[in-house]
Amino acid sequence: MIKFIEMDKNVTINDQMVEEEENKNGDSVILINKFDVNPNKIEQFLKDWTEISSYFKQQPGFITTELYKGIGKSSVFVSYQVWKSIDHFKKESSIVLNSHEVQSRLAKYNDSLVISSHLFRNVVVPGISKN
């Protein structure tokens, strides 16, 4: 199976979701994923990412996603997904990621795929960023 490494050593993504349940402010959330891909499996990763993302696109509360690759011979990818709310993200990601088809795709990677995930919200900095 793939290897998951927390992006933040101080808080897990599961901790973030629990804390958010208590907060319930309803703002949109962004999921950032960093993927360390075996260079020999990049083509397969791109195919799988595209197909898994197409499932997410169909889910209620999903807004958008994009994928970026490190420049040159890098095999590091970063994606982000924007969700209408934490509740939408939690419900739909649980359904999609636990599906048999998605699990069978991820199982192909053994330990060659490392994923770090974290949830974010926009920080408005006056004079610098958009509201």
Brief synopsis:
With 131 residues, this protein is of the alpha+beta class. It has helices at 13-23, 42-57, 86-97, 100-107; strands at residues 3-4, 29-37, 62-69, 76-83, 113-120.
Structural features, described:
- This protein is an alpha+beta fold and 131 residues long.
- The protein has a single domain (3-120), classed as Alpha-Beta Plaits (2-Layer Sandwich), CATH 3.30.70.100.
- It is built from 4 helices and 5 strands, in the order βαβαββααβ.
- A hairpin with a 6-residue loop joins β3 and β4 (76-83).
- It is globular and about 45 Å long.
- The mean pLDDT is 86.
Poorly predicted runs are none
Rounded mean pLDDT is 86
Q: Give, in spatial order, the strands making up the sheet with the most strands.
A: 1-5-2-4-3
Reported by name, the CATH topology is Alpha-Beta Plaits
Topology order in helix (H) and strand (E) letters? EHEHEEHHE
Using only C-alpha atoms, the radius of gyration works out to 15 Å
Q: How many independent structural domains?
A: 1
Number of helices: 4
Assembly form of the protein: single chain
Indicate the structural class. alpha+beta
What would CATH call the architecture? 2-Layer Sandwich
Instruction: Kindly state the number of beta strands.
Output: 5
Overall 3D shape: globular
Distance between the termini: 40 Å
Helix coverage percent: 25-40%
Specify the CATH class: Alpha Beta
Largest sheet: 5 strands, mixed
Q: How much of the sequence is in beta strands?
A: 25-35%
